[in-house]
C-alpha cells in the first residue's frame, strides 16, 4: 500500500465488534426478527464478510447469549479472594450497565438455544448466582439466601430490559444500592402492613375469539411466538387453520391482543387496589403487592407479554408501549412521593429494578403460587425500591 492510501484497514477486534453489534440487534428485535444483513450493516461490513466470522445466525446468536455471562465470570474471577458482597455486586453491576444494550439477550431469547447450549449457559449463570449466594449467607444470615441473591441479580439485570437514559455512574449507584437492600431484607418478615390486594378475574373464554387467545398464550409461552403456527393454535381450539383468519388477520394480531389483555388486567388491578390509598409509602407497597400477585396468578400471560413484545410490528407495538408507559408512570409518581430526592429517571430505573426482582425471584420459586411466596417477593420489591 502506498503512502497516503485510503484503503480500509480491517480492525483487529472485528469479531468483538460483530458480537457487540449483534447483541444489540438481537436484544432489539429478538432472535427471529434479527437478520444477518442488519447486523452486518450495523458493523459497516457486508453480509459475506460477516459469514467469514460466523457460519450462520445461530452460531452468532449463541456467542452473543454467552458474552455477558462470560464477562461476569471473568470479572468475578479477577476479584481478590477476600472480596466482600458489596465488591462482588459492584463488579456485576459495572459489567451489566456497561453492556446494557446487548445484555438482555439471555433473559428471553436464550430459549432459542439448543439444549446443550442452554445447559452451558445455565451453568455459567449458576456460578455467578452461587458466588453471590455464598456471600449473602455469610454477611446477611437471614432466611432464603438463594432467593435474595437471585432477586438482587434481577434488580441489577433489569437495566438491560429498558432504555431509560441516565448517566452510567448514577445508574450503577442506584442499582448497587437497590441490590444491597434486597440481600439485607428478610423476605419472611413481609412488607410491614401491606393491604390485601384483589385481582380482576381473567375473562372466561365464551367466544371463539377468546378461545383462540386462551389457547395461544400457553403455546407462545412454552415454545416461543416464532415457532408456534396458526395450525397449532387452530388445532388447540378444534378449528381448521384457515378458520383462524375469520377472527384475526394474522398470528401477530393474536399476540398483540393477548398482550393488551395482560395490560388491561394489570391496569384494572392497580386502579382497584390504589383506590382510597393516600399515604405514598402505602401506595408503593400496594403497587408491589398488586404486581407480584398479578405475576403469580397470570404467569403465562405476563411472560408472553414481556418476552414477545419486541417481535411485533411497530403498529401493533404502539398501543402496548403506551399501556406500559402509563403503568410505569403510576409507579414513578408514587415512588417519587415516597422518596422526594429521586428525579423521574432515577425513579424509573428503580421501578424496573423492582420488576426485575419479581422476574428472577418468581423464576427461583418456579412461580409456585402461595401467600408466602407472594409476601416474600413483595418484601424484596419494596426493599429494591428503597421505601
TrEMBL record:
Signal peptide: none annotated. The keyword DNA-binding applies. It comes from the Bacteria. Residues 12-72, 206-266 form the HTH tetR-type domain. Keywords: DNA-binding. GO terms for molecular function: DNA-binding transcription factor activity; transcription cis-regulatory region binding. The keyword DNA-binding applies. InterPro entries: DNA-bd_HTH_TetR-type_CS, Homeodomain-like_sf, HTH-type_TetR-like_transc_reg, HTH_TetR. Residues 35-54, 229-248 bind DNA. This is AcrR family transcriptional regulator.
Amino acid at each position: 500500500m502506498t503512502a497516503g492510501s485510503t484503503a480500509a484497514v480491517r480492525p483487529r477486534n472485528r469479531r468483538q465488534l460483530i458480537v457487540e453489534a449483534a447483541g444489540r440487534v438481537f436484544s432489539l428485535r429478538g432472535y427471529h426478527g434479527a437478520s444477518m444483513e442488519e447486523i452486518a450493516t450495523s458493523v459497516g461490513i457486508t453480509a459475506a464478510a460477516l459469514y467469514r466470522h460466523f457460519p450462520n445466525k445461530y452460531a452468532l446468536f449463541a456467542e452473543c447469549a454467552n458474552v455477558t455471562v462470560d464477562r461476569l465470570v471473568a470479572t468475578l474471577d479477577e476479584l481478590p479472594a477476600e472480596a466482600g458482597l458489596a465488591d462482588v455486586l459492584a463488579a456485576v453491576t459495572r459489567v451489566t450497565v456497561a453492556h446494557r444494550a446487548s445484555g438482555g439477550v439471555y433473559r428471553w431469547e436464550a430459549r432459542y438455544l439448543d439444549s446443550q447450549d442452554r445447559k452451558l449457559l445455565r451453568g455459567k449463570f449458576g456460578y455467578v448466582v452461587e458466588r453471590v449466594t455464598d456471600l449473602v449467607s455469610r454477611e446477611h444470615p437471614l432466611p432464603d439466601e438463594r432467593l435474595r441473591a437471585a432477586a438482587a441479580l434481577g434488580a441489577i439485570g433489569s437495566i438491560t430490559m429498558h432504555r431509560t437514559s441516565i448517566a452510567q455512574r448514577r445508574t450503577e449507584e442506584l442499582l448497587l444500592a437497590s441490590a444491597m437492600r434486597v440481600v439485607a431484607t428478610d423476605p419472611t418478615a413481609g412488607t410491614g402492613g401491606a393491604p390485601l390486594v384483589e385481582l380482576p378475574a381473567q375473562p372466561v373464554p365464551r367466544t371463539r375469539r377468546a378461545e383462540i387467545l386462551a389457547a395461544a398464550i400457553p403455546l407462545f409461552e412454552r415454545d416461543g411466538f416464532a415457532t408456534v403456527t396458526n395450525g397449532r393454535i387452530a388445532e388447540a381450539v378444534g378449528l381448521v387453520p384457515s378458520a383462524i383468519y375469520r377472527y384475526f388477520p394474522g398470528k401477530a394480531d393474536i399476540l398483540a391482543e393477548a398482550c393488551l389483555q395482560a395490560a388491561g388486567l394489570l391496569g384494572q388491578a392497580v386502579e382497584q387496589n390504589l383506590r382510597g390509598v393516600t399515604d405514598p409509602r402505602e401506595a408503593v407497597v400496594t403497587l408491589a403487592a398488586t404486581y407480584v400477585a398479578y405475576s403469580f396468578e397470570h404467569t403465562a400471560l405476563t411472560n408472553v407479554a414481556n418476552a414477545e413484545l419486541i417481535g411485533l410490528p411497530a403498529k401493533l407495538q404502539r398501543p402496548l408501549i403506551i399501556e406500559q408507559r402509563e403503568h410505569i408512570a403510576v409507579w414513578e409518581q408514587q415512588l417519587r412521593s415516597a422518596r422526594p430526592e429521586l428525579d423521574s429517571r432515577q425513579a424509573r430505573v428503580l421501578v424496573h429494578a423492582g420488576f426485575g426482582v419479581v422476574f428472577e425471584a418468581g423464576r427461583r420459586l418456579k412461580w409456585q403460587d402461595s401467600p408466602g411466596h407472594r409476601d416474600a417477593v413483595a418484601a424484596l420489591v419494596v426493599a429494591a425500591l428503597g421505601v
